[in-house]
């Protein structure tokens, strides 16, 4: 997924920043109540108390608004694993940080599953770049610390693969659904090799 345009925004005027927060809060409420399918630009504008033109100028279209919703949560998540408290943030050993990261990523993905599903399936390689690159670099570093000499980049991909939004949606909502806790337990089984 590419969030580059949203991750490095230009400085905002105070009124524009207020409007942005109102718009994102209204959009998040609509998605929470009706799902991604209910995300209509006119409804978001009305709920936020701004003109529809403001919404289109700011976000372009519905997918731009969805990416902004993803980006808000993504910033919080990345701050947590880069500089937050241990074990997700620095201060714990590498295996504990890998486990905390993967568990937090399950929660983060489940929290915005429909938005991430839309974003990750927008094109064949939509999942890669942006946030995925940050996750991959982080996990590669931790894997290198936990298992010196291991092929850290390939192991990082292997650890991230089961958390792709389409696969996670299939597992959570399929004919034989699993719970997020079961996904975490399976990841813990995989991670047992890092402690060996």
From TrEMBL:
Residues 17-77 form the HTH tetR-type domain. Residues 40-59 bind DNA. InterPro entries: Homeodomain-like_sf, HTH-type_TetR-like_transc_reg, HTH_TetR. The keyword DNA-binding applies. The keyword DNA-binding applies. PROSITE patterns: HTH_TETR_2 (PS50977). Keywords: DNA-binding. Pfam families: TetR_N. This is HTH tetR-type domain-containing protein. It comes from Streptosporangium longisporum. The lineage of its organism: Bacteria, Bacillati, Actinomycetota, Actinomycetes, Streptosporangiales.
